[in-house]
Amino acid sequence: MLEVEQLSKRFGGLKAISDLSFRIAAGEFVGIIGPNGAGKSTLLNLITGFHKPTSGTVRFEGREIQGMQPFAVCRLGIARTFQVVRPFAEMSVEDNVMTGALFSAPGVTLQKARERIRTPLELTGLWAKRHVLGGELPIGEKKRLELARSLAVGAKLLLLDEVVGGLTKPEIQEIIGVLRRIHASGVTIVMIEHIVEAIMALSQRVIVLNFGEKLFEGTPAEVMQHPAVIESYLGSEAEISRAQ
Could you read off the pLDDT of 145-183 as tens digits, one per residue? Predict the structure, then answer.
């Protein structure tokens, strides 16, 4: 579904992404981890058109998309969330999700958009709160609202940027359940995350970045045991045991 080949991005003298290559198959749930400054969010920005790569190729379903405008990438079926959630505070949950549906393609009517919001709201557990204002939701539900709005564009591939960051343990478990439902519905997911618990619970495969390069790629269990990953990111064996 997604092919990244020899992708690089420079900001002046800083090489944020360096000759990075990987593939995501349809139906996968892939985690991406790495220390701060590893290039994780930059990678999502390159895939979704917020940044243009210095070099390299990004293909989605066989089509080159690097350098396309974000709205055009979105309309191909790639949606994303951001680290800082920003719902439309004075709009209802229902209307927040409708904005995603309305901008998913040219000429979407209000009626058609309204018909498309039920499934995202049910998958994220927000159907009962559809009339609540977005600004009145607690942070965990705001995160779920952002997921619902992303799904409403008709996402085939969902890119998540620290979707469980800043949440309590019960909220993290709720989001894990939501993501399992979304994945089971047929959406391919790539998740950037610092919370090792979520990566271990959800990912079928994990890509580890360090200084913009791929350090390692494997199953969650293989990643947790890899010496270079432990040294550069995971920390001591005691910290890993607590995370597990």
Answer: 999 999 999 999 999 999 998 899 999 999 999 999 999
Q: Which CATH architecture has domain 1-77+157-244?
A: 3-Layer(aba) Sandwich (3.40)
Residues of the chain with CATH 3.40.50.300: 1-77+157-244
Q: What is the pLDDT of residues 83-102, one digit of tens each?
A: 889 999 999 999 999 998 99
Q: Tokens 């927040």 map to which residue?
A: 96
Task: Return the closest-CA partner of residue 215 out of 225, 205, 199, 226.
Answer: 226
How far apart are alpha carbons 105 and 126 in whole angstroms?
24
